[in-house]
Amino acid sequence: MQRDELADFLRRRREAIRPAEVGIADGPRRRTSGLRREEVAMLAGVSVDYVVRLEQGRSSHPSTQLLGALARTLRLSDDERDHLFHLAGHQPPPADGVARLARAGLVRMLDLLGDTPALVLSDLGEILAQNRAALLLTGDHTDFTGDRRYAVYRWFTDPALRAVNPPEEHEQYARRLVADLRATAGRRSGDPTVTALIERLQSESADFRRLWAEHEVAVRRSDRKTFLHPWVGRLRMDCETLVTPDQGQQLLVLTPADTETRERLDLLRVLGTQELPTGPTPQ
Prior knowledge:
434 Repressor (Amino-terminal Domain), single chain, alpha+beta, Beta-Lactamase, 2 domains
């Protein structure tokens, strides 16, 4: 761990970020260049004291999860993110596969979408980043580990999570997940991560085996999905998926499908952030 270099890099990246880039008003009395340390702490989900110690070269060894949160907060490019990991004494996330951080450009798009729920996902359905509106709608889905990172795995192995969606949509949603996984498996033929995930799903879920045997293939692009929110009730959302050129990551944007849903989303924003139950992702 190169503490002094890490401290200098984090401080310079913090000073280079404009508050508006992360949804913070840049008032006339603001004297700090870039973000304040307490703003970085708030956005990354760490204490202000730890950010101070990082920038002063006095920190303990940061975890990969913390480095990922800092990379997202500071809008680091892929090269900058890798440099951050190296300075902290870690290997950066692999360039390919599912264990990647959301691309900096996609994270900026999350900020620009403001009150429109939006998420960045890997091609296996792992949520890599969410904006505040998406957190209010679905809860935080970025802290899962192991196979539970993947929406398709959670759907077929934990039926309790299906309560977020009405029963009449369960079959259609399950088919979409399996058809999209089939397309990913074809595109990433021989990838051990994908192969192992499919094998575990076949072993653990008869429902998955049934749908997988039908060999339906369909890349997720757009559809309509209903959420049963614990605070505001039924929300009908149109889901539009934008895919990166290498098809490795997706930007999922959710917009209200009718006036009633729009009004309920407005109410949800007023209610603010509280801890929500973590249900299936809106992939």
